[in-house]
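Now for one protein, fold included:
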Amino acid sequence: MKLPIAAILLSTQVILSGCAGVIGGPPPMPGDPVDTVIGKFGRPTAVYPLPDGQEFEYARGPYGQFTYMARFGPDNRLRSFEQVLTGEKFATLKLNSATKDDVLRTIGRPAETSRVHLNNYEVWSYRYKEAGVWNSMMHVHFDQAGIVRMMQNGPDPMYDERRFNR
């Protein structure tokens, strides 16, 4: 069965519009120069130097559940572009060794910050979709030296229906 060209074009447009709702258009392609990425997505929310290039953060917060990292090589060409607020990416942060800089370069800026006075920890909280489904928050706890000592996740209270039914 052959699909008419109009049906194929409409399907492609629907798929791409789904991408546009999250990042503002289709993702950039590996090899794209810095100027192309900035032209598509605007100025990054942060720029982090890397040993062999730089990384652009595109945070969709503070209420958003998506942060995209664009990594560029020394030639200023895109190496990778990924959504980093995922359980898999949080799992790459090593307890008792990751620093605040490591966290920023891995998952970007937090949606919220707070303190836990009992341990004198600074807490960075990130909204995300756990397993791509559940509205969740990951809380990254830093000691006074800026080392990750604990990570806890749970439901995002912003989406807790019980909160509104009191």
Notes: The domain at 24-83 is CATH 3.30.1450 (Beta-lactamase Inhibitory Protein; Chain:B, domain 1). The helical segments are 5-23, 34-41, 87-90, 100-107. Confidence is low (pLDDT under 50) at residues 3-21.
